[in-house]
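Please, structure for the following, as tokens.
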Amino acid sequence: MEPPKPKFTFIEPQKLIKTATDMKNWENSEAYYDLLGFVNSVCMCIQGKSLKYSCQISQVVQKLLDMLDKMEKLALETPPVDQPSRFGNVAFRTWYQKMKTNIESLVKDILPENLYDALPELIPYLLDSFGNPTRIDYGTGHELSFIFFLMALFKIGALEKTDELAVGIKVFDKYLNFVRKLQFSYRLEPAGSQGVWSLDDYQFIPFIWGSAQLIGTEIEPAKFVEPETIESFRKDYMFISCIDYIQQVKTGHIAEHSNQLWSISAVQSWTKICTGLIKMYQKEVLSKFPVIQHVLFGSIFSLNPVKPGTRLPQARLGMPLSAHPLPGH
């Protein structure tokens, strides 16, 4: 028998990282370890599997996909307005307000009735997953908020461990495509972009999970920058879809506008790329106060320290592939 799910006393989550000195508490917290555990766990789950891989879609996973469809419908009903400024279309605020008005019923639709108490704690994570309506921008902090929302659904038992694969290759991919549409349609500013030296103006997680997907495939790292590879596989692998999107929105050679990605193509294996990107994520996103100051803590994600000697989660990548032949991509 499975052990009973831990019981939570749900509360509205709060920002607790107030100054740069609080970052030490974050990097030693249960929430930080939970987050890295989840990122690594999904990497192991989706390695070698394409976006078209046929996997089990549970009722809650289907409801998550439906929720993102409803949000997209609201965006289609809220076209960008004519305005002098090229960036930051104010229609984004209108869409955000519509989404905010509907968000309680959208999240309620996902949950079984016995988890309705979790709504006040879950909603703020989802609300912050699509960009900031004041600044009309989007960045890795908003992406992180969506990851926390997904993790929360696992932690409270709405999603099961068996849903991990579908969350990685179906739900997150749908989210990614949706936020790209928001970025493009409303001309969202990149939040805290480092320009040519960042991995990407807006996202990070799809490069981590996308490189895990490519482990054990015939696509060598050196090939992901080639137009034929992009054309053939952009709908199959998140990493390639990210490269395709960057090539569409930026001009010139990838080495000029995306130097970090260009240098990745010289790495020997996708396993090394994936583990390297997780370390880079820790350094470039998770250790940055301007991002982490917005992270919310409540009963589900705690700033309590982990037990002394707890090791950071690390994915075992590349190993199960020899034991399990891959089903068709």
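The radius of gyration is 19 Å. The chain has a mean pLDDT of 92.
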